[in-house]
Amino acid sequence: MNPGLTDVPETMLWTLHNRASEAARSDGVLRDPEALRIYQAIDYDYELRFGPADPSHAIRSAMFDHAIRGFLAEHPSAVVVNLGEGLETQRYRVTEPDTLWISVDLPEAIAARERFIPADDQHHHVGLSFLDRAWFDEVPRDRPTFLTAQGLFMYFDEADIRSLMVDMAARFPGGELMFDPLPRWLSRKTTSPKGWQKTPHYTTPPMPWGINRNEIEPTLRSWVPTLREVEVLSWWRFPRGFANRWVLPLMEKVPIINRHAPCVVRLSFS
Is the dihedral of CA 208, 225, 264, 61 positive or negative? Predict the structure, then answer.
């Protein structure tokens, strides 16, 4: 099966490449047999396009899994809304019989997802842009809500994300949102004339929204002054790979560099 994906939807294959390759390792950070199944079923030259796999996206998924497990331990009948989920297989790694999962993605991404991951009574698929507020109507109003956006917000303009966050704060009071921002230096690289060329055969789509770590909390609170909590989480360290073993620990230790380090944000709406 060839997915025929381009532009931002094609990035779901990039993240799948890294997650599945990590899951195949005995020392991997993620156990994910479903990702491996999908990875092997798709006729696609992952290494030609994206280069050798690295653990980055698996670490990110593990961080999101950890947060959602904690939320569901307190709210087992909650709703988990995954925006721009692509071929993420989190629903198989995090299980709770009373939780409702809603995946919101572009119609072509949902079509690719449903070739491998079926919707059912507990797992709903909504074929809409996450910027189309119509998906709000698919979320029950009487249940706690945890929203995620893995590798998504950076592909859009800051004004769009700000507007969405204001609307989500009004629609999901008491809910939580988790996302991974992109530092400004990397955003600038993707929007430069040459772009971010991962390999000679693949240049990432532009990622116009970048924000440095030290700017995150004041910026989000200026957008939504009623936020209950803003938590900026350091990327989990993993003792394999040059970046995870040496670069990230160095960035964490040096204050002037720390602001440019990758991170994950978890916030609570009041």
Answer: negative
Q: Closest by alpha carbon to 232, among 249, 209, 214, 248? A: 214
Q: What percent of the chain has pLDDT over 70?
A: 93
The CA–CA distances, whole Å, from 224 to 27, 87, 171, 217 equal 41, 31, 13, 10
Check: pTM over 0.85? Answer yes or no: yes
Residue 242: pLDDT band with limits 50, 70, 90? low
In single-letter form, the type of residue at position 114 comes to: E
As a whole number of angstroms, the distance between CA 261 and CA 185 comes to 10
77 DSSP 8-state letter:
T
CA distances (Å), origin 99, targets 35, 94, 136: 21, 10, 17
Write out pLDDT tens, residues 163-220: 999 999 999 999 999 999 999 999 999 999 999 999 999 999 999 999 999 999 999 9
Residue 246, φ and ψ in degrees, nearest 5: -125, -50
Contacting residues for 101 by C-beta, under 8 A, at least 6 apart? 79, 80, 82, 91, 122, 123, 124
> How is the beta sheet containing 100-105 ordered, strand by strand?
123-127, 100-105, 79-83, 145-149, 176-179, 263-268, 229-234
Comparing 122-126, 150-154, 214-218, 246-250, the range with the smallest average pLDDT is 246-250
DSSP H stretches of helix in 103-205: 107-114, 158-171, 184-191
**Distance, CA of 84 to CA of 149 (rounded, Å):** 7
**Torsions phi, psi for 176 (to 5 deg):** -130, 150
